[in-house]
Amino acid sequence: MANMSATVGGAVAPSRKARRNWVPYALLLPGLLWLAVFYAAPMFTLGSQSVQEGNVYDGYVVTGNVGVYPEAVSEYWPHLLRSVGYAATATIVGLVLAYPLAYYMAQKAGRWKNILLILVIAPFFTSFLIRTLAWRIILSDGGIVSDVAEATGFMALLNLLDLSNGATLLNSRFAVMAGLTYNFLPFMILPLFATLDRLDPRLMEAARDLYASGWQTFRHVIWPLSLPGVVAGTLLTFIPAAGDYINSRLLGNTNTVMIGQVIDSLFLRVLDYPKAAALSFVLLLMIVTLVGIYVRKAGTEELV
Amino acid sequence: MLWIKKHLLLFAAMGTLAFLLVPNLVVALFSFNKPRGRYNYEWNEFSADAWLNPCGSPGICEALGLSLRVGITASVVATILGTLVAFALGRHRFRGRSTTNLLIFMPMATPEVVMGSSLLTLFVMAGLPSGALNITIAHIMFCLSFVVVAVKARVSSLDPRLEEAAADLGANAFQTFLRVTLPLAAPGILAGALLAFSLSFDDYIITNFNASPSSITFPMYVWGAAQRGTPVEIFVIGTVMFLTALLIVVIGHLFSMRRERRA
Lengths: 304, 263
Prior knowledge:
The complex is a heterodimer. By secondary structure, chain A is an all-alpha fold. Chain A has helices at residues 2-9, 22-50, 68-108, 113-124, 128-139, 144-152, 154-160, 173-197, 201-209, 214-243, 246-251, 259-270, 273-298, and strands at residues 52-55, 59-62. The two termini of chain A are 14 Å apart. Chain B is mainly alpha-helical. In chain B, helix 2 (8-30) packs across helix 12 (232-262) and helix 7 packs across helix 9. The longest helix of chain B has 32 residues, at 60-91. The mean pLDDT of chain B is 90. Classes of the chains: A mainly alpha, B mainly alpha. Chains A and B meet through helix 2, helix 3, helix 4, helix 5 and helix 8 of A and helix 2, helix 4, helix 5, helix 6 and helix 7 of B.
């Protein structure tokens, strides 16, 4: 992890004369003011909203009713757990899919490296929603994918694991998790690529000279050195995936509703602002807690 | 069998790349479909109608226009604010540096649905009606951190000796900044601006919380369309976006290659 701190904290110009010390504060002021007013302040209004009572038409009064929190959690805990479960699956599958590509790009691709990088970035710049609609076409009945899944017994396996929707791939748990994995995959590939790209190929040569097998080289040399990328990629995938509901809405069914969808509907359709605000906070708290535990276990505090 | 085992890494890498790219190919293919019924989910018949009239579906180009306006405003403002912050973090040591880092990191670690709903409560309490202004404000907020990260990476890797050399040659602080520092930081700033634009252009969740019926962005249009039927024009615009992005990235790459060769 030494290389991580070296790059994060590195190359800061030596502080010049003391009288120029106001410069960094002047540079920071507009940006931080924006974040203070439009990021930090909304968190307070959200908190205040969660302990209010009333309705949209007569107005809300702060009553300090914290009872809305246990109420919201007991009503929606399946959605909360489901969101965490789907996001964790998308993260793990994403890591397994991203690693070989990131490693190949960084260490093996040679002059193809930049072309591969362009091919990874380009889909990321095109509409998330349209690409998710494309998954509806790909997974639909009578499509190649569902025929292959039927023929190879993959469908039977999904049925056994209770991931499919009876007979179809679409509108199922499998479809939602596949969509989440797909949509957040570039967020896993890019940080992994960044750390693997800095890896000195001579280290792998040295491992081979010392008679390490391919697996041993990966286990004891490559993997530990790529941990900063693994941690960054995991966070960048898990956090947005846990709050997402586009995939569950477009690719899932009524049994795949994620917590974001509940919050959206409570805010914009049911207009139960206090409960919606409380659920928003619970989601944030859950994610912060999980991320905190994970970062502590992974041991890269330098990230934050 | 041995051949497969030898190239296992290559196969795994190409499999993932295919997984990433297939949906884009499907979008391109189905932009030439003449759908049976309202949903463009099944291949029916070849037709270039949608390509000849991409604004044919009512409201689609108005939504596109709003997304472009919001995206450009948000990325310009976020890039200016973010670049200033990145210079402070990348070039100066000061009290409160780690607090600043944390404040920059937080918006990236907050789920969109939480940011969107919290902004809604702020705007409701402030009595500000929903609409394009709120959307732009929100987009500047969540793009800012990404700009800071992109620019900071570039700024902190600059060699301080280049600026010292400029000073030794008699340039004043302003000249040094304008003629040496800024051009060197430009690729990072450009990358940050592009990233901000694409994040803004693509956002649905935060936008949906702060939009009004008269401020429909392109992702909101697509979302609405997906419930009622999917006009082929959406797939045309998706394909154009993919090709434009590809073109921009390729040009940027060629440009930086030429620069490196000259240097």
